[in-house]
Amino acid sequence: MAAKKKSATGKLFDKILIANRGEIACRVIRTAKRLGIATVAVYSDADAEALHVREADEAVRIGPAPTAESYLKIDAILAACKATGAQAVHPGYGFLSENAAFAAALAKAGIVFIGPSMKAVAAMGDKIESKILAQKAGVSTVPGYLKPIKDAEECVAISKKIGYPVMIKASAGGGGKGMRIAWNDAEAREGFRSATNEAKSSFGDDRVFAEKFIEEPRHIEIQVIGDGHGNVIHLNERECSIQRRHQKVIEEAPSPFLDPKTRAAMGAQAVALARAVDYSSAGTVEFIVDKNRKFYFLEMNTRLQVEHPVTEAITGLDLVELMIRVAAGEKLPLAQKDVKIDGWAIEARLYAEDPLRNFMPSIGRLTKVSTPEGRAGIRVDTGVYEGAEISMYYDPMIAKLVAHGKTRAIATERMAAALDAYVVRGVNHNISFLAAIMHHKRFQAGKLTTGFIAEEFKGGFVGRAPDASTRGLLVAVAATMHLRRRECEIGISGQLPGHEARVADACVVRLAGEEHPVSIAFDGGVYRVKAGGETTEIATEWRPGQPLFECLADSRPVCVQLSAAGSGHMLFHAGCLVEAIVLSPRVAELNRLMPARRAGDTSRFLLSPMPGLLKAVAVRVGQEVKAGEELCTVEAMKMENVLRAERDGTISKLHAAVGESLAVDQKIVEFA
To answer: I want to staple 111 with a disulfide (CB 3.0 to 4.6 A). Which of 106, 517, 564, 609 is the partner?
Structure first.
């Protein structure tokens, strides 16, 4: 590998290129600028107006939108380095971050790879090889078959030998891509096919292996960092058990489960594994931990992790800066005894997806974005801005929201409040789901497993219903909004004398379909709202048109997010999203006589639940299918989604062909 040296000017490097996109590219640029290092962004045609392109000092186009023709194209990255004079490359995570061929190509070109050695990338970036090395290093490992599986039938045979359930995983994988759980032979065959296809699409490597799936596990990982002088330390753990489809949703540091003895043991094994491959740079050793705190090595990620900000929050360290300094040949500025734990940090991943439709990806333009950054203990890492577009070609992450506090309870409260205040319009998003987790009693108690979401949201997420206290608050907010709006209307000039608009002191708030008679009065700068025998005092400076209704409700700070919906508003607070319409008593009376609108019948059609590419159609016209039988496969955001029949029937027509780009709710299959 090329020598890791400082530039002639005495800086760490004069210029680095970030071989990535989105929020991680912006994250690296931020630290590089603070260190006085010039930055180069690379971009595909789909990212020409992306935030990382705008924030970098220079930007180079590397190809069309598909990742295989841009962000995974090693020659294009090398050409960008040579064209701009970049001395080093930070790979971020995903894409080429764990690609040994990329590290080798950079070394051959005399360009520093801001990451571990080629030896470590090749050994630990490969999930099969890393498990073999872990065993040799004395690290506890999960039982499994540590060789590439040839085909679906071999996958079934191996799965039977290991014993169901098994996890089928991409050898070069990460980020939840190329992973399937199989509980029987049929799922092993399908899991092999889907994991192989996803692995090839995401990593350019279709090898998969299998290992025992440990039920009721926690996913806890250890952050390590080493330098080129033989120093390796760990920076404590991160709890990443809240996952959906094997992809992390909520991460925190430290873990609410580990005791000092287990933390030390896991840290020691992680450091031993890193030393076994002369590891230098930031990396993460991931473990599965059972209910008795017995832990097993899962994999090692030879890169920066998505969730690294929670480690930074509790240690006070900048991991990107440490990576750059180590790559430039410096020694680590601290020893193991210097690593502390300051408070608690929680990270939530905000995605463009619809949690009410099984988390299907959402694409489109962000028409409104307002973040809670600047609030106490809050950090926002994002790669988008108001007016930017969420593309179907890449991971649908909008941002990472991080809350830090003295205790886990404080961090949780700050996260919940920040989610209330995070405004995203133009695409569907998972903020309501994240907020529902923050308010979940089991989460607040720290009783976590990787099955948390499946166990607590059986049948999918249907939204969080407001309890009596939240419902009363939202009724009071809706009534106050209505009165504030009427006050503004009254102030409009040009009204006829004797016919001025008046503010009624009574109304009916229709919240989530339920009617709440309300009386409201303004006195001493406070709105007193009486509903259902309870009085709520609201003090606010809110003006019509503002997306956040911030107030003191009975002297307690509250933020309610607003969006127009027909003749009313959608109110979002504490994970609850409800419609509110304020009517006069007479209009409410007449409204009860209106017939309910009937929805159109779409039961004869299979509709695309997401925008994406129709990869395969498994049926033909005239074919009889049974409930649960595979109909087609839609690829979106680099993930394959198998769509199945909801009932028995006969295929009468195919409305879309393989290779066609689908819109949400587009017809694919019609039943007789």
So the answer is: 106
Q: Please identify which of the residues 211, 286, 299, 353 carries the catalytic annotation.
A: 299
Cα–Cα distance measured from residue 224 to residue 213, given in angstroms and rounded to the nearest whole number = 25
Do 602 and 644 contact (CB within 8 A), yes or no?
A: no
Q: Are 30 and 104 in contact (CB under 8 A)?
A: no
Question: What CATH architecture is 15-114?
Answer: 3-Layer(aba) Sandwich (3.40)
Contact 131, 144 (CB under 8 A): yes
Q: pLDDT tens, 452-482? A: 999 999 989 999 999 999 999 999 999 999 9
Pairing of strands 630-636, 506-511: unpaired
Q: What mean pLDDT do residues 277-293 have? A: 94
Residue 86 in contact with residue 111, Cβ under 8 Å? yes
Alpha helices in 385-464 (DSSP H): 408-421, 431-438, 441-444, 452-456
Tell me yes or no: is domain 605-671 CATH 2.40.50.100: yes
Q: Is the pLDDT of residue 324 over 70?
A: yes
Domain 218-456 has CATH 1.10.3470.10: no
The answer as to CATH 3.40.50.150 being correct for domain 143-212 is: no
CA distance 15 to 12: 9
Q: What percent of the chain has pLDDT over 70?
A: 97
Instruction: Look at residue 195 and tell me whether its pLDDT is greater than 80.
Output: yes
Q: Is the pTM of this model over 0.90?
A: no
Question: What's the CATH architecture for 468-491+502-591?
Answer: 2-Layer Sandwich (3.30)
- Tokens matching residue 252: 């925190």
For this structure, is 299 an active site residue?
yes
